[in-house]
UniProtKB/TrEMBL annotation:
Coiled coil: none annotated. GO terms for cellular component: lipid droplet. Belongs to the short-chain dehydrogenases/reductases (SDR) family. Keywords: Oxidoreductase. This is RDH10 dehydrogenase. The lineage of its organism: Eukaryota, Metazoa, Chordata, Craniata, Vertebrata. It holds the Pfam family adh_short. InterPro entries: NAD(P)-bd_dom_sf, SDR_fam. GO terms for molecular function: oxidoreductase activity, acting on the CH-OH group of donors, NAD or NADP as acceptor. The gene is Rdh10.
Length: 138
């Protein structure tokens, strides 16, 4: 979750380098698709490098964890602060991709305000995304 920017994007890129099949969630469709484009670029580079060396062996001499043709990235727009949105998106992932084996639940709200300067709505939103969403997504 939170794959569209910041640490979520960095986690996605690092998992891509480790040949993971990725399912990216973010509330912002455009930034999530930008991350997916970066991931696809990494996959293409790895495929080109693998084609340049002996079949079945990566450039560092280690066996490939997954064949390069199986590397995929899926994107979903999801507001993890809304329980029903999480449940619907999770069901779509199960149907379209399969079961998830590793969850990096990274989405978060950072207000940048002192507590006493935060409007009630922002406090509620922060709690829904930074606390409740962990239970719903898991």
């Amino acid at each position: 979750t939170g794959a569209g920017s910041g640490l979520g994007r960095l986690f996605a890129l690092e998992f891509a380098r480790r040949r993971a099949l990725l399912v990216l969630w973010d509330i912002n469709t455009q930034s999530n698709e930008e991350t997916a484009g970066m991931v696809r670029h990494i996959y293409r580079e790895m495929a080109e490098e693998a084609a340049a060396v002996a079949p079945g062996v990566a450039g560092d001499g280690e066996k490939d964890v997954l064949p390069h043709c199986n590397l995929q990235v899926y994107t979903y727009t999801c507001d993890v602060g809304k329980r029903e949105n999480v449940y619907l998106t999770a069901e779509r992932v199960r149907k379209e991709v399969g079961e998830v084996s590793v969850l990096v639940n990274n989405a978060g709200v950072v207000s940048g305000h002192h507590l006493l300067e935060c409007p009630d709505e922002l406090i509620e939103r922060t709690m829904m995304v930074n606390c409740h969403a962990h239970f719903w997504v898991t």
